[in-house]
Specification:
Blueprint (H helix, E strand, L loop, with lengths): L12 H10 L6 E4 L1 H7 L7 E5 L3 H10 L3 E6 L4 E6 L2 E7 L1 E6 L4 E5 L3 H6 L8 E3 L5 E3 L3 H7 L8 H7 L2 H13 L6 H9 L9 H12 L5 H10 L1 H5 L10 H12 L5 H6 L6 H11 L3 H12 L9 H11 L1 H19 L6 H16 L9 H5 L7 H16 L6 H11 L1
Parallel strand pairs: 2-5
Antiparallel strand pairs: 1-2, 1-8, 3-4, 4-5, 6-7, 8-9
Helix pairs in contact: 7-8, 7-9, 7-10, 12-17, 14-15, 15-17, 17-18, 20-21
């Protein structure tokens, strides 16, 4: 029998304590989902989720009696988080669906492991491991893990109709764990349900898209999302722009050791149009920092790889380094990809790489003067102070930041 008993996370004393606590007196608890899946795929395990036949109030009572902290993180849905030695274990009572409406499910608690497995979304996410580490497969998940096949449990259209977010989860899990072509039934069900994605909250859509774009190589998933019409549904900005830049960007990440960045990858498949991206940020409800990322990118000047260092530094000062660095990474990835068939572009690749390194190491110089220096000359407070200060700063920038405070004070005196 397939087992995860040899995995280091499985032998942790805290997990053993959970098994001992909830397997007693007629109860049963099993590890479920990601920890089992990742172990079988040779991947790191982060969180450990568990399923139990015990009702949530019983889980809480047993934890209390054992001196274990129990947090009712979703007790109305049957979920309690036990914290042992600082490690969280999410414990959820077995459930069966009573009613679904494409967004929310009404569930009832149960004790049937097969029913619980069949209500989950994908076969690779419905594998259990008991206290011995034995993997229990009730839906054919082991065969799909072997083939790296992402497949809905049972009827794909029915699973999708239960929660339309599963359309995006299908592609997200394909990006992280799939191989070859997506499951035909799953792909068809997702394509047919794409119009229903508008019923989902923006936060859920963006969360799934960001996780997908964080995969080591999301290229194939994005290709099938575009083919099925799902990508245009959630990201209309990409419709005419396309996803052709993704392979070159992934190759550049691997060549230069860049960490996968979902925002950079998103930037590569949408046009640098400030108005459209502002609208996108509002529609997807991006965080303030994420919205600023795209604003900085769209406002960054498009520069030549031939630019001199001094001129480049002036651009960095006036425009900031973040947006320029994003633009340089995309340009570098693009030129590097073209250089594979045109060696004449290799020098440009080297120049772009040098500029990117300079931007990444750049520290903004501090202008030596302030408004107080202007006021000290007798100029009355008001717009004139900012105008004088701006003129002096412009000259300081144009002089490549070389003028010191004494020189600038002398200039200020001559101006007033």
């Amino acid at each position: 029998m397939t087992s995860v008993a040899a995995e280091s996370w499985f032998s942790a004393p805290a997990l053993t304590r959970v098994f001992d606590l909830l397997n007693a007196d007629g109860g049963e608890v099993r590890v479920v989902g990601g920890a089992v899946r990742n172990s079988l795929m040779g991947l790191d395990v982060a969180d450990i989720d568990m399923a139990t036949t015990l009702l949530p109030e019983v889980v809480v009572a047993r934890a209390k009696s054992a001196g274990i902290k129990a947090v009712p993180t979703g007790i109305e849905h049957g979920t309690v988080t036990l914290v042992i030695d600082g490690a969280p274990f999410e414990i959820t009572t077995l459930r069966r669906d009573v009613a679904t409406n494409g967004r929310h499910a009404e569930v009832a608690f149960g004790t049937d492991w097969t029913v619980d497995a069949q209500r989950r979304d994908l076969t690779i996410n419905a594998l259990y491991a008991n206290a011995k580490g034995e993997v229990i497969d009730l839906v054919g998940g082991l065969a799909d893990i072997e083939k790296r096949n992402i497949r809905f449990i049972g009827n794909a259209s029915e699973r999708v109709a239960e929660d339309y977010l599963r359309v995006l989860r299908f592609f997200r899990f394909f990006a992280h764990y799939g191989s070859g072509r997506p499951d035909a039934d799953g792909l068809r069900a997702c394509a047919q349900a794409r119009s229903k994605l508008s019923t989902l909250s923006a936060e859920r859509v963006w969360s799934e898209l960001k996780k997908l774009l964080s995969a080591r190589d999301p290229g194939r998933a994005l290709l099938w999302m575009r083919t099925s019409g799902v990508l245009s549904e959630i990201l209309p900005e990409s419709e005419k722009w396309g996803i052709d830049a993704i392979p070159g960007l992934i190759a550049a990440e691997q060549a230069f050791g860049w960490q996968p960045d979902p925002l950079l990858r998103l930037a590569s498949i949408i046009p640098p149009d400030g108005d459209r991206l502002d609208a996108m940020a509002k529609r997807l409800r991006l965080s303030k920092a994420e919205a600023v990322y795209f604003t900085a990118w769209t406002k960054a000047p498009r520069l030549s790889a031939e630019i001199a260092d001094t001129a480049f530094d002036r651009l960095l000062y006036r425009n900031g380094d973040k947006g320029i660095a994003t633009s340089l990474r995309l340009s570098l990835a693009s030129v590097r990809q073209k250089a594979e068939n045109d060696p004449a572009l290799l020098p440009e690749t080297a120049r772009l790489q040098r500029l990117l390194t300079r931007a990444e190491k750049w520290q903004k110089p501090v202008f030596p003067l302030s408004g107080a220096d202007v006021l000290a000359t007798g100029i009355a407070a008001g717009p004139r102070v900012g105008e004088i200060l701006g003129q002096l700063e412009d000259k300081w920038i144009d002089g490549n930041f070389n003028a010191d405070r004494a020189t600038l004070v002398a200039r200020l005196q001559s101006m007033v």
